[in-house]
Amino acid sequence: MCMRKAEIISYPELGHIYEGDYYPELPFKDYIRSDQQIPAGQPVFDIRDYGAAADDLLNTEPIRMACEACRDAGGGVVLVTGGSYRTGTVRLYSNTTLFIAPGSELVASRNAEDLISRIEGTQDFGKESSGGAFILAVGEKNIVITGGGRICGCGEWFVHEPRKKPAMTPFPVTMLPTRAQAKTPAINTVPDSIRTYYRDRIRYAEDKYGEGLPVLRRPSAMVWLLRCEQVTVENIILHDSMCWTLHPEACDHVLVRNIVIDDNRHVANTDGIDISGCRHVEVDHCFVSCADDGLCVKNPVYTHRHSENICLHDCTVSTVMNAFKIGTGTRHDIRNVRVEDCDFIMPDIYPGSVSGISIESCDGSAVEDIHISRIRMTSIQCPLYILLNRRNEAREPYSEDPESLYWGGDIGHVTIEHVTAQGAELPAILTGYADVTKSGKPIRKAIHDIRISDYQVIYRDNLEVLHLPDMYEEFLTDYPESNAHGDVGACGIWARHVDQLCVDDVRVTPRSCNTRPVFCFEDVRTSENRA
Q1: N or C terminus: fewer CB in 10 A for the chain?
Q2: Strand positions, DSSP E, 263-333
Q3: Domains along the chain?
């Protein structure tokens, strides 16, 4: 077998790491076992037996042979042990356990051509057209990824250098872009705004600021499990993803347990766990450190199915963006989601995470029966963000009917309880929207049945600069992000276009310089409120 050297890389001038890129105190021993045994009673396909070498060779071909031999035998264990193996895309098949032993790893080739390939069966899904994946399973059953070792994506090799190095000290003033600034491409370059502070430190594959940089090719997921059933990912380290880290999509019966995601916190789009169009998912006892959404449930147009019965508990998330998020891609329904006993933290770089809890429906999803309880946050800018609008990413045709998908979906039956947030910087925002049709008929789309109880927020006591508008615009078609609304008229909870809002035992300690009331309700129909 002729194996070529692996040192050919697409962007050799990249790959630098700076202080603050990685969370320095990841508690690996609390999540990863080093004594896990290879499953007994199954055939074992050691990649070394097919020619894999833990040196500077590219091992794509021997690893492919081991995986296909496992498939042809009806299943078994593909064993990675004995060191670090660089490879292109690895495809897994039904009844396969990918076992990466402690101290061993699969490392993504730094040559984008080794990772960007067209895979049969993925044509209607977003990842194939925009870059594929490093570890991939399509339409398979009984897939296990485990062992205590590591999968490494070499993420910073596929993105440009940041404009500024990570910020290791807090900023003295909190200021948001105004709504006028938010509606222009300059929203990410408003001097001294917290949005600009963190965006300047993100590394993009695109020419984000019109500086004449080339668009870099990179995979769109490190581990992508598409239309699979009975999937388990446990006792594994996912390190330095090049984009979305772990992405089960249109899957049934997924268990993710005892994993550590250790990404560069400044590589754009490195979500931690993205659950898209899946049913019956449990995420238990995981540590996620990443640059984009940490725990994320979404359902874009191409899944063609609803998401339901998703439980996430006992997780710690440290991210620059949203710790837990429903959205942004929301074309099909999402229901029965529980998030419990989690810690959302950003203890060492600044500014803090964009939001702690973010629930969005922008493209037609009915998001309902959401229960979030016992959440502890530290250094999260916006603890709670709930938004319904009609971004309409699926480009539904115009209709005068307010119930058509053109006008968006629905958010209802949401319970947020037993939440504490230390070091917050922004108020909670809860909003539906109001608009008119082309013929002038009014449209009111309220979020509804929202209950918030035992909710305590303590602000970081720095300075703030406010730009309160005379009238708040509707957030009709914008990309949802809590810091893109501009300032609002409350320091605790700002709610608009909400039906059946119940607020019980809400305690907010604002900044010393605060001038805003704790609550501001506009077009809100409340249930019993005991603030």
Answers
A1: N
A2: 273-276, 279-284, 287-290, 295-299, 307-313, 316-319, 322-330
A3: 28-160+172-526 (2.160.20.10)
CA distances to 89, 99, 135, 391 from 92, rounded to whole Å, are 10, 12, 8, 36
**Phi-psi category of residue 405: left, alpha or beta, with phi > 0 → left and psi -120 to 50 → alpha:** alpha
The position carrying tokens 């709504």 is: 179
Q: Has this prediction a pTM greater than 0.85?
A: yes
Q: Residue 375: which of 425, 428, 416, 320 has the closest Cα? A: 416
Residue among 124, 296, 309, 90 nearest 227 (CA): 124
Q: Which residues lie across from 507 on neighbouring strands?
A: 456
| Each residue's pLDDT tens digit, 258-289 | 999 999 999 999 999 999 999 999 999 999 99
Answer whether 194's CB lies under 8 Å from 173's CB: no
pLDDT in tens, 162-194: 999 999 999 999 999 998 887 787 788 899 999
CB 46 within 8 A of CB 54: no
Which residues are CB-neighbours of 39 under 8 A, at least 6 positions away? 77, 97, 99
Number of Cα atoms under 13 Å in the Cβ half of residue 455: 23
